[in-house]
Every structure is written in C-alpha cells, then in structure tokens.
Design brief:
homotetramer, about 350 residues, alpha/beta, Aspartate Aminotransferase, domain 1, 2 domains, 7-stranded mixed β-sheet, 4-stranded antiparallel β-sheet, 11 strands, lyase (chains A, B, C, D)
Chain lengths: ~350, ~350, ~350, ~350
C-alpha cells in the first residue's frame, strides 16, 4: 500500500518495450534521429499545434526551469502560487536557470484567482528600474495540493497575463490527470486557453523520465535548445527519451494511465467518506485527507505508506496525509486502505 | 558502417534487462532506493575508495559541469586543454554552472604537458584581485583527440596542481576505454594518481545515459547534491539510472565493452596502415586519420559514416576523418571499411 | 520643502573639502593608498573590532548584495522582512550577486519578530535537497518603514539565527540615524548583539556615495574583495571614497548629521500631532504619516515634495506620505511644513 | 616620477569645482535631475548621435561588463584580443554580468587583424547547439599594450562583425587619448566606423570615476538601465557623476587633458631614443619600453615608479617597463626620467 508519490511506481511495460525496440543499430544522436523527429510531430498533432516548438527533457525540474528561463529575463519576476513546486521544491533551480530572476508569490492558496494575480502584477512594476520587472505567470495543473483549475479559470488567468503582455507557463507534471479529470483536450487546456508554454509531463504517469516542453510560439525554439544544452539536458542517446514518449502517445496511453490513476483516487475518496476530512477537492490523483489519529495509526500498522503533510507522525492529534495514486496502484491496495481506515 | 560517435550505437542488452528487472513495484525516489544505494557502494568498491562520495547523473555535460561547479568558485578559472570538451562542446555549460567562472586554455594540444600546465598556472594569479583566480585542473582521459594520458603523466599533472593547492578533475567520458588501454585499475587512474574528482562515463560505452561522479574527498558531497538538484539533474525515478550502472558493473561489463571497442579500433588502425596517415596515437577507440581523397570518396560511396574533422567533405584534398568504434561496432564493418579503403 | 528622500540632499561641505585635500599627487590605486588604509583602521576603531575586514563601496545596492553573496550560497535563501529593501528595491541585485539565491519573506511587517523568524527558518529546510537551504538573516536598521529595532530585539533575532547556525547581515543604510536614536555604539548595534556583517551607510547621511561593509569575522575578506572586483565595484581612484569616509568619521560627523536629521523628524512628528496619523513609530529620520486630503492638498500647493506611499495622489481620500528628513533639511522647512499642515 | 598608471594621478581641479557647484540643494536622485539630463544630451551632441542611449557609471569594469551583458546572451561568446582588459583584469566580471558567457581570444596580439577575427568567428559556431554561439566583438582603443587602431582598421573589424551580424563594443578606457592621437572625432571613432556601443572613459583622464556608455541603437536602453541597477551601479546621488562628466565636456577638457598626456608620452619616447627599445608603437599615453638593466637600476634609484611588465625586477637582464603618462604628469618628471635614463 504505497501512496507516497507518483514517482514511486514503475514505468508502464509498454514503455520498456518501446525502449527495447529503439535499442537497435546506429542512429544520429541529440534528437536528430527519425524516431525523435516523429515523436515531436506526434506531440504537435496531439496539441493541434503544427507550428509549435517541441522538445523533450528528462526531469520536471529541467522542463519548468528551462521554459521559465526562456520566457523570463534575469531582472524579471515570475508570478506563481505560494505553494508552487517551482518555488518550494526545486532548490532554486528556476532562479539558477533564469540567471538570478525572482518569484513573486501571489497571495492565496494553490489555486490562483484572477483578482489576486492581477493585484500581484499591479503591485510589481510600480517602482520603475528599482523593482523586479514583471515576468511570466506560472500555473500548475493539477496543483501541488491536488486541485484542478477549470478551463475557464485558466482562460481568466491568461487573460490577466495578456492584459499586462506577460506570457503564461503551465507546469503540467500531472497534465494527463488534469486533462482526464476535465475531459479536456491538450489544446483546450493550453493554447486555446491562452497558455504560451506547456510542460506535458510523463514521469509521474508511467514513463521513466520524460517531459515534453511545448512552445506554441516557435520563435523561442533555438534559445530553448541552447539553454537545454548548456543546462546539460540534451541527451546524446536521445532515442531513449523519444521511445518513452512514443509509447506514451501510442493509443493514448497517457490518457489511459491517468484515467486509471484518477479512478483509484476516486475510489479512495468515496471509501474515506465519513472517515477522513478532505483538505482538497480531488478530481485528479492526489488526495489531502485529515485522518483521525486512530485511523492513521491503524493504516501505519497495516503497512500503508504516505506522507504526513501536516501534523505529527507520532503525536496524538489528527494528521493530514497526502495520498497519491498512480496508474500502477492496485485497486486492491485502495480497497484495503479504505477497509483499514473504516475499521479504525 | 557507422563510425560517427560512440553515442550513435545502442545500449547493451543487459542494460535494458537490468532496467526491466528494476521496473517492479514501488520504491523510494531520488536515489533513496536500495538499488541506488547498492550501486553507489559498488562504485566505491570498484574505485577502492570506501569513503568516496558517489552520485549518478544522466549526461556528461551535467557530470563535468556539476563537478567543476562544486570545485570552482565563480571568480576562479579552470585549467584545461584548448580542445577540452568542456571548452568546445558544452555551449558554456561549465561557465553557467560555475556561476560565471572561466576556462584557461593551457597552450599545446589535447595532451597537456606538466610544463605547459605549470606555466599557465603561474601566469594566472599574478594580478591579485584583478585576474581570474586559480581554480581546478581538468584532464580528459581519453582525450578529445583520441590520445591517452599514461598514468605517469596524470601523476605529473596532479603534482603540478598540488604544488598550487588546486584540485584535479578527470573528464572520463571514455574512462573505460582508457583503463583498458592502460590496463589500469580505476583507482590507479584516479585517486592513486592524485585526481580529486572523476567522472566514470557509461553513456559512450553501452549505457543509455548514466555517468558516475566520484569525489574522493566526501566533504563536497552535500554541495554536489544540492547543485545537482538545482541543475535539474536529480531524477525522481532514480532506479533506472542505478539499474543501468548496476548492469555496467556486473561482471565488469564496462571493461568488456571497452575492450571490444578498443579492439575494433586496433583492427582499423592495423588495416589502414599504409593507406591513411594517423593524426593521433590511438590506443582507445577513437582514430583521427588523414584519408586521401580517393579513399574518402570510396568510403562514402560504400556507405561509411564518420565526421570529417578537417578538410572539405566535397573538395579534392585529403580529409581528416574522426573514426569512433564502440562495443557494438561489428567486426565485419571494420573489415569492410578497411577493405574499401585499401581498394581505393 | 523637500522630504522625498535622504538621497535628494547635498553632501556635507566637509566631505567635499576632504576630497579636495585628497586630490593631490600620485597615489596607489584600488585602495592601496595610505588614506584608504587609515580609513579602514578608523572604522575598525569605531566598531571596536580590531580584526574586522572592512571595505568601502559606492552604493548601498553593492554593499548589501556583495555582503549577502559572500555569506550565502546560490542554493540557499536569505530570511528578511516582506518590505526589505533587498527584496523590493534592487531589481534582483541580491539574487544576481548570489548567483540565483533566493529571499524568504518572514511573515509580518517591517520589524521582524523572533517568533516569526524562527517559524520561517523552521519551515525552510524541511525538504532536504529539494528546498532552498537556510541562509543568512538580513535585518534593516532603521527599517524601510522608519521603525527601529531595539538592541534587545536585534540580540533576539541574532539568537534565533545562531540557533540554526546562520549568519546575520545588517542593512545599515540609515545606520547612523539608528545609532543616534538608540544612543548605541556601533559595536553595540552590531557584533555585540550578534551581527556578523554590517553595512555602515554614508550616502543617505551626508556623503556623495560611500558605504562601508564590515565583516566581523575577517575570514571572508578575500572572497568579498574578489566579489567586489568582479561586480565592478573596486574603484581605481579609491582615495575619493576613502576621503569621504574619512570626513564622515572626523569628529563623529556621521553622528552629528544623523542627530540633526533625527531632530528635524522629531520636530515634524511633534508638529503634526493631531493633524496626521502616524503609521510608524518614528525615532529616526523617516515618518509615514496619514494626511487628510485637505492637508495633503495644502502641502502640495505650498510646494512640499514627498512620496505618496499609499493612496491616490489626486483622489479624495487621505494619503499616507513618506516624509524623510536629512541633515540638510532646514528647520524652517519643517516649521513651514507643519504650519501649512496645521492650517489646512 | 610616477608612471605606474593613469589612475594614480589626481582629478582635474575643474572636476572638483563642478562637483562643488552641484553640491547645492535638493534634487531628484538616480539620474533624474536636470544636470544629469543635460550631461546625457551633451554626450549625444559630442558623438553626433541625437538618438543614442547614454548612461554613466563609475567604473570601467561596470561600463564594459554591463555593455557586454546587454549585447551578449549567456550562451554566446565575445571575440576579443588575448590581452583584452575584459579577459585579463576583471576577475571574471564580464562572465558574471553575462550570466556565464564566454570570451574567445582572437589569436594574435593586442591589435586584432580582420583576418584573424574572421577566422575566429568562423571557427566558432560550427558546432551547432554544442558550441558557444557567436556574440559581440570587443575592441580596446587604445589597446592594453598602448597601440592604436587606425580608423580604417576599426572599420574593417566592424565590417567583419557585420558580415556575421554581430555587434561591436569599444572599450574606451583611453578613448580620449586615442581620439587625440588619431585626430578623430568621437563619431568617427565609433558609430561612423561601425561601432554599436562605446565606452567613453573619464576615470583615467582626469575624473574621479565616471565612464559613459553610449548605445548608438537606443533600443537597448531600458535593458541596460535594469542591468545597471541590479549590478548596483545606479547611483542615488547621481549628480556627482554628472558633474564630473559635465566638467569633462566643458571646453573639451577631455581632449585637452589627453593632449597633455600624449605629449608627455611623446616627449618620453623621443628622450628614450637610443636608450630603450620600444615594444609598442606609442601614439597615446602608454609606452612599453625595454630598459637595459643599468637604466632600470638608475631609474629605480632615482625614485621612478612604473610597472615591470616583463622580466625580473631584481635580476640582471633588461626589463620591459610600462610607462604611463597622464594629464597631471609634470613635464619635469618626464625630463628627469629621460635624463636619468640617458645618463645610465
């Protein structure tokens, strides 16, 4: 019963198979092989963006930091939520890649509101040369607290950004879970809503380690490529990234895996009804649930793994647990978890 | 007949198998899993360095840039050869990771001499606060021009560095080929010779993309880990890097593969005797050979792939070709190449 | 009637005279002249810190950014108040000098509380390699909102920092005004309270542009010098910085000028009693006062210059004005200002 | 007899007087005062460039590094001579300001040739995403070895840069000495020859510390201002920089002072004829002369100050001395120097 993270599970077997198929003969390196080219095209097709610049990298940190560095000058600041992954969990990677840029935390919680965003942007940029200059807006979909931006909300935030002529970045580490939850197409969730650069994450949803970065305005392509190289993120044996992404796209695997993950989370939400108090509105694959102490204790005793997000692991009060389901989470594990929780 | 690069070939089948075996169940991310721990231990064993700090990254650019950034302050300069990969082929990655540090090119060719190194170090650092401060020495073994530093030469260079209290970095993208060519142990080629940080490359020798960075003084460990994270090079699903390296170490695969690659190169050197003029002293897997124009034309017509390093692909003069053999280079390809060349 | 800023006024005549005296003959550059050496010694004397490393720079941005860069690794974060000058008014200079470091805003207002600081430090550094690492604490004395840290409060904040083994930086752009207001010695306000690095500002208090940076632990000296040089802040004709500081120290000019500035502010505070609502507790030279609209209008009509900090310059509601007095503010101007305000 | 450097001498009295005149009353900070505006206009007039963006900074390091950072992306490289000040004497300041950019040393000596420049540019940028990308060309006029680029040579170098669509930066620390030596107007030596950004140095020619940076394409203005601010080089009490430059422009003081300095150097060159062997072709104010040992010894005994550029201060062989004259070098000192040298 492992609900610690979507990076704790394995890769989907078809991913390994695709890598095996790619593991044959000599091909050009650095993404110049035929498979890599085909995969970029498939992503353009998926996003209905035939002109888009598409690149693969192996980690989400790289994907987001490189995208932001390409959008943001070192004297600017990125607008994001106070719990944005780029702020909390990257050991200053965005600041490093931006060359000393800044993040401005938009007051509120994980789901930014258009009003708060507008106020934050207005507050920056009132100091002329003295203040940080306004830079891109960054949205995480699904958020770091497991909540979902409805399409309308993304459109509104992009509208605010557009009012100030600022680009919008979408951190899509859990892009697939969001698209499934919203029943939205990748295009609807990105450029049709006003997003300029999207990260289409694969690592948390069945790949070993591949994220696609999609610039809907292809002008930034070359700069992104240069930044990727000097960040050490251009793989020589690129085909193994491409093969993973190829498998991900094949038969909409990305969507099927996210559907499974979301389903497991929904089963858990249903099962915990009356037992735990939800701290988020989970429609994706991540649940923040306040567990009464006896429930927590019983789950631990039964071997359940998850992070205690708030509260004391070994105290007496309730704890807030982060429960993450993946495509590989066995339905039996969810059932068992619920059973133990309900029994406690 | 593909001799373009050691990154053009596939991964060894056992690498994929090891990744397949690792692809099971839930494990801790970010290198905290048992396999990753075991692999780090195995590398320490291989290098006879039980206290060493060992970390894996996925690209050589990352390995070298992170190692140098950990050794080198932004107001310092790295001493390297004028054709060092860190100078010529990284789109300023070392400078980026060092936060604006510099490279000082030691006059000469790819194989640095102790005298030239000493003179270069002496020349820097005579300007007090005004000049770049002396930083690490970086050696590439096998060099970018396919030559080999004998152990004694490495010891001499490390001795010069030690005279100035400077650390030594070894770029070991082709570490295995060198160790085989020298019949030296990893320890002999590194810390026993005075090297402080070594990169033990796997990508060019049968892995998909894994390089180990070994700090023989473990004090730098935590800083390296932080720099790796903020560079976006800490993989969440770390087990797939560890599995590759595990396969690499198993039964000395790294040594067996490099032995094969070197053998192919030796066959080619022997076969080209009297046909081409060698521009380097190849004892590893990389040959720089001056090909008479008719030989070059015949080889191209026969479908041979390689880089023209100097000269005009479509001219009339001889060209210098870079010919790289890998573990997966078929002996028949070498034989065929030689045959075509000799016939021309 | 100019109350816009302490950088709007002239330099004290004795400063210019000292520069004139220094403007004679050939001397060594870059701070190696006798005058520069003597001035550094005088600052050590003033701070009762015979071992301290002392350096001069020409701007406060440089002083604070270089001090922080010397204290803070690029993967760390600086703890400061949400209105810290280093956060709001430096166009990302600290982030630039730190090589991509971060600032963590301690919740609260301009005067940090020990509890809030402790909570902020505790909250950082709970994410291992993923989060920004804990770095220095930065205190502004007098704060950007014109408030004063009592010595006891500085000691408490330094105590919190010490509990986490973090260094403390004091932004002393208005150091003199604070020392006068507290009737404290420079030593009491800095190292005796636990401060590791202090900026002793002169620019806002009668110099043309000189700030001293004092590291009480001299070990950082050489690194600071290198960072100053590569930041472009090492003046070749250093004597003109030294001469300014020499004049500043002569006969405690710094203290006499700050006494005058504070006195003007006190007169204004007294005069505005019953007319304006103070938004800070001014004991230095900076007043934030809520002015009823008629008062604001009357003052503007009378030619008073000051910044509207909150509210609408041309609206109907009251505005909050920032009123800064300097050593050169004529008492008559304060009297006139008060008179106009009271009449309105 | 001080010939160590043009930064060892004092400021011209009229500079101090201008600062004194500016030292009156309250004015806007940060260059928004009337005097600062007027000075920027005067520089535009002097350069016959009514649209140019003009800014003042206090050090040459800042002027050149900020100019290059505005012209050069962090993944690019600057082409300069192997003895360029930006390479040898800035403790990595350009690399720092460029965010990790690089310098490519054009083979040859201090005076770049068009052919060598073209070859260097061609050699870079042949490696696609892997190599440093081509960036600006940087010319130092007068060079660091005291030589002069004729106008035609500047035009040729700019022509080469233009062929590759690269901008040209002119490091004009000794701009005035060059303009006098060439009898050229500032416009002729810069934009009329193809220069995009010029530094018009004052510090080495009679100011305390002011350099003007002139972008002939004003589009870069705002970015330069932001970079200046975040570099800590925006002075709050800007009028004191402006006043210095104002004096410098008044009655062509800059030209008169450089004329004096060059005249002293010419006297020395003439006087050393037959005694010393010139190592450069001095037409400005800086002489590199090989002094026979007895001459060197006699000069030292007579109290002459200068740098030994090559050779051993205390050996037996001849030494190469760098002899720098300034506007304030007394003709008697030159005469005395020559007399001692000739007597030896």
């Amino acid at each position: 019963m492992n609900f610690t993270s979507d990076n704790a599970g394995p890769a989907h077997p078809s991913v390994l198979e695709a890598m095996g198929r790619a593991n044959d003969g000599h091909v050009a390196g650095y993404g110049a092989d035929a498979l890599s080219g085909r995969v970029r095209d498939r992503i353009r097709d998926l996003f209905e963006a035939p002109e888009a610049a598409v690149e693969l990298v192996a980690t989400g940190t790289a994907a987001n930091s490189l995208a932001l560095a390409t959008l943001c000058q070192p004297f600017q600041t990125v607008f994001c939520s106070p719990v944005a992954h780029i702020h909390e969990d990257e050991c200053n990677a965005p600041e490093f890649y931006m060359g000393g840029g800044k993040l401005t935390l938009v007051p509120g919680d994980d789901v930014m509101t258009p009003d708060a965003l507008r106020a934050a942007i207005e507050a920056e940029g009132t100091r002329g040369v003295h203040g940080a200059q306004r830079g891109p807006v960054s949205i995480t979909q699904i958020t770091e607290r497991g909540n979902l931006y409805p399409l309308e909300r993304i459109r509104q935030l992009c509208g605010v950004a557009r009012d100030f002529d600022l680009p919008v970045h979408l951190d899509g580490a859990r892009f697939a879970n969001a698209a499934v939850a919203l029943n939205a197409s990748p295009a609807e969730m990105t450029w049709k809503a006003g997003v300029d650069v999207a990260v289409f994450g694969g690592t948390k949803n069945g790949l070993m380690g591949v994220e696609a970065v999609i610039f809907f305005d292809p002008e930034a392509h070359w700069e992104f490529e240069l930044r990727r190289k000097r960040g050490g993120h251009l793989f020589s044996k690129f085909r193994y990234l491409a093969a993973q992404m190829d498998a991900y796209l094949e038969g909409d695997l990305w969507r099927r895996l996210a559907t499974d993950a979301n389903a497991r989370a929904a089963e858990m939400v249903a099962g915990l009804d009356g037992v735990a108090t939800l701290r988020n509105a989970p429609r994706g694959n991540m649940i923040f649930a306040e567990l009464p102490r006896p429930v927590h204790t019983a789950l631990r005793d039964a071997g359940a793994h998850y992070y205690v997000w708030e509260g004391d692991e070994h105290g007496t009060d309730p704890v807030t647990a982060r429960l993450v389901c993946g495509w590989s989470t066995p339905p039996e594990d969810v059932a068992r978890f619920v059973e133990v929780a309900r029994a406690a």
